[in-house]
## 1
Amino acid sequence: MLELKDLYFSVGERNIIDGINYTFEKGKFYGITGPNGSGKTTLAKLIMGINTADSGKIMFEGKEISQLSITDRAREGIAYSFQQPARFKGITFRDLLAMAAGTDDEEMLLALLRRVGICSLSFLDKPVDAKLSGGEIKKIELATTIARNPKLAIYDEPDTGIDLWTIQPMVRLLKREQKEHGTTTVVVSHNRAFLEAADIVLMISEGKLVYRGDLQGALPMLNDLSACNYRKCVGDKDVGCYR
Amino acid sequence: MLDAIDKDLLKTVADLEGLPKGAFNIRKNGKLLKREVSANIDIESNADGSGIIVTIKPGTINESVHIPVILSQAGLYDVVYNNFIIGEGADVTIIAGCGIHCGSLEPEGHAGIHEFRVGKGAKVKYVEKHYASGPGRGRRTLNPTTKVFLEAGATAEMELTQIGGVDEANRANEATLGPDSLLLITERVLTEEKQKAVSANTIILAGAGSRANMISRSVIKGDSEQDFYATMEALAPCFGHIECDAIIMDNGRNETVPSLKARHPDAALTHEASIGKIASDQLMKLMSLGLTYDEAVNRIIQGFLK
């Protein structure tokens, strides 16, 4: 349903995405992982149109979308959940949810709250501003993504700012969306819980797709990529270098 | 008595469909058009006929008074001095506002000088909207001044809005707060084309336990200019906060100067100020929900000025 053909994206001299080819299948759950700075988020942004590829094609359900705006890609059925969600002044969760769902009907908004597992109705009228906690804003981000009823949902690091106890319910929510609504799901994450939930794990390193398959097969490579390649590194013997 | 233009202006600046219920005073082109008083709210002209005195009896609860001004006379600059005396323990809403309809090349303007004396424990909500419209190209000016004196335990909540069409505005807000009093000011100003607006605010926290919060939201479009100055001076243990945000679009220009003066060691004064274009992450979020760029801009501005 989503095909990436010879995708390149660079900033200055640096190739952030360096020739990626891949076809995502309809209704599958993908986990995209890799070291920090490997190009995972950039790849997700290229799909949504937040950044535009230097060359290559993005085909969505047989239609080329490489040059479409964010708006047009959203209207084609792609939804995106930002790692650092925007905060506003004077816009409430209700406003965003209504925009996402295309309706301000109270019953439909309440049904959406139930669907995403938000029990507190008072949450609906919370301003989406700087006062929200990291966990609250991520819940809102997820809810507005799901409210789009997307064909393809992209979640960039959905667990950022979320407490440990909320991660499993979040994984279950995304899996349920995949099963019940046939949503093709792409999660960019380092978190094992999301990677375990994925049907297919994709690993990006230095802008290239270096692995596709199940998590088990990815583990040796993940361990390898997590080793520090700085030649003078004293590693975990000394300062606790985790790279 | 009210023609179509008057009705349109009243609807815009005071949310009125015709004449209001309760006490009101409607001024049109520098003259009294219609006045009603109520059992608890008295309105009388001042001695020299340059304005009105609104007296609200102590203990008056949940009543409102409308005092809109409408202008549609070419070449008129209307100046009015209004006094509001709010009795102890009252809880009332005052809805003001000025609408100008300009139909010619001649300028039109209004300066409303409003002085509020809010008695012990009383609460007042003051809502003021300024708006100008019409096909004429005459300069439209609105220069409001508000002076607020809060006695012990009094509260004033002021919503001051300029929603468009005003070529020049010089606003001055002054307030002196007594012990345990509370002042909340929210000012929202939208300018476009070559319009200019200046807002100068001086808030003196004179009483122990007084609190003030001033919020300013500015949207500056086209080639317009807006300047915002706010000084909070603390003379006692108190709390004061200034929050001023300006969104600049096109070639708009803005100067924002919050100023804090602590004259007492137990004063707590803070401010936050920002000037900038609409944040790209906000635009991208709304576009990812299916809004076009222009729809996203409008929605963000609408929320910002809400």
## 2
Amino acid sequence: MADVNRGNRPLSPHLTVYRPQISSMTSILTRISGTSLILAALLVVWWFLAAAVSAQQFALADGFMTSWLGDLIMTLSAWALWYHALAGLRHLYWDTGRGLEVATAERTGIAIVVLSIALTVATVLVV
Amino acid sequence: MSYMTDRKRAEGHGSAREGTRRHWGMTKSSVALVFLVPAFVFTFGPMIGRPHAEVVAYFAQPFPALVAALMIVVGLVHFKNGIQMVIEDYVHGVFREYTVILTTCLCYGAAAAGLFAIARIAL
């Protein structure tokens, strides 16, 4: 190694010393919601694959999807999907160099949480 | 004692061009998903719990079939790239490579299965 002191430097205090804030909470929620969406994605693929194969296979997949567990997963996933989409829009807005002031970013942070819950309720009602 | 130079040690760890390329890739898929997500939620959603024949007839139509196919492919490619970022942040050592390979295979596998299913229903 060209750098003999590698791995032996003092580390600056990280997450543990910070009070939870809108910025950090909305950031980690974006990752958690995005990561958890793989479950719904695989269920949806299973559902389509079952529909393509036979009525019996479809009854199995659709039966799981409409069971209480399936309903719970799909409802939580609907929230994850809306939250992640809104957080993505927020990132696209930031990428234009706007909305980065602390006060504005906190307001958009609260806005995406509220909007994502509203959209989830709307989805549950419509779908 | 190693003869590696500082430059050699920095190479391949995300110099300017590679980093922006990944960011641009995520930007492109996210813009597409802004349109695909609502379209998919309100076409696929109401079909959950419907009879098999109705579901098959519905996804044999061009618009719902194309929305579903694009959502599955673009969504899973977006997931593949996103989860790789997450893995590279939190997973270290050789296990990082294993998880990236595993998630990449899972995403392409699921996308292929979804596309096959929709093609079979629609055609």
